[in-house]
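User: For my dataset I need records formatted as: sequence, then C-alpha cells, nothing else. Please produce one.
Assistant:
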Amino acid sequence: MMTRRYTLAGLGAATAAFFGVRTLLDGTPAQAAQPARTYEVTHTDAEWKKLLTPEQFDVLRKAGTERPYTSPLNKEKRAGIFNCAGCALPLFSSLTKFESGTGWPSFYEPLSTAAVDEETDSTFGMRRTEVLCHRCGGHLGHVFDDGPKPTGLRYCMNGVSLAFKPA
C-alpha cells in the first residue's frame, strides 16, 4: 500500500534524478562545453599565476565571479578605456559604461564585436551568455538583454578582469 511518505519520497527521487541528468547533459564550466579555441595570447596555468593576482586568475582563467560591489571600477568615472587585465586588449569605453545597480561594472556595448567572444554558459542550471576576451580567452563576465538604449544590452563584467587606462 502506497503511503504519503513513499509518494513524496518517490517524487523527490524523480526530481533529483531529473536535475542530476540535466546537469550532466548541460556540462559544467561553459568553456569546457565548447570546442577548444586557439588564442593569440596563451600561457600555462603556472605562467598565468605569475602574471595575475589570485583574484584575477580565478576570474579570468577559472571563470570565477568576484563579489558584487567590491571592484573600484564600479566608481570609475574618468574618460578612458577598460582593457583585459590578462592581455591588455582594449574592450570597453567609458562612454558606454553605466550604473546597472548590480554591483559589477556594466557597459552597453564593447569597443568592437571583434574584441569579445560570446559562448553559451549553462552552469548553475541557467542558460546565460558568457563574454570572453577575444585575444586570450579570459572570462570577463556575462551579457544580458536588460540594458539601456541604444543596444538594450548589459555587459556585466567582473572588475578584476579589467584594467582601466585613463584617456
